[in-house]
Amino acid sequence: MKITPGKLNKFLILKLPSAWLCGVRVKEINQESCTVKVRHKWINQNPFNSMYFAVQAMAAELSTGAMVIGQIQESGKKISMLVAQNKAHFTKKATGKLEFTCNDGHLITEAIQETIRTGEGQTFWMKSVGLNEDGVEVSTFEFEWTVRLKSKN
């Protein structure tokens, strides 16, 4: 089954309702990149009248993780995925419409192929950049993903 923005947004309602309630939505996804959008509003604001950092993190993580989910499905193997670490850098107040884009899909392909080939877990870092509606960077997140074949027990 091919992953689409519509299917991922339905997945949010069922599996990540806090992200869905905060307005996190997948805009575009393919093998190499994913863009997730979110708008600053009352439900996701901080006391400084900008978007709470955790909402930005949810959108950024989804822009990386959605591609991992898609490529695991395409592999046909039972592979687990988990965020091991993350880093964030904030450069501007997050207001209005934000888009988080990750262009690191090629890293997933390499890691999945290697974990299937060797049976060993693999780790890789993916970056998501958040831009406001003026195209100005507001934050950058990096996530260290781990993938490994699930045991047959």
Description:
InterPro entries: DUF4442, HotDog_dom_sf. It is built from 4 helices and 6 strands. It is of the alpha+beta class and 153 residues long. The two termini are 26 Å apart. Helix 3 crosses helix 4 (105-118). The mean pLDDT is 95. It has a single domain (5-149), classed as Hotdog Thioesterase (Thiol Ester Dehydrase, Chain A, Roll). The longest helix is centred in the middle third of the chain and has 23 residues, at 53-75. It has helices at residues 5-15, 17-21, 53-75, 105-118, and strands at residues 25-29, 34-39, 79-90, 97-102, 122-132, 137-149. A 6-stranded antiparallel sheet has the order 1-2-4-5-6-3. A hairpin with a 4-residue loop joins strand 5 (122-132) and strand 6 (137-149).
The side-by-side strand order for the widest beta sheet comes to 1-2-4-5-6-3
Strand residue percentage: 25-35%
Rounded Rg: 16 Å
CATH homologous superfamily heading: Hotdog Thioesterase
Number of domains: 1
Topology pattern, helix = H, strand = E? HHEEHEEHEE
Oligomer: single chain
Helicity range of the residues? Answer: 25-40%
Instruction: Note the total helix count.
Output: 4
Give the CATH class.
Alpha Beta
Shape: elongated
Q: How confident is the prediction overall: mean pLDDT?
A: 95
Based on secondary structure, the structural category is alpha+beta
Termini separation: 26 Å
CATH-level-2 architecture: Roll
Question: Could you name the ranges where pLDDT drops below 50 across 5 or more consecutive residues?
Answer: none
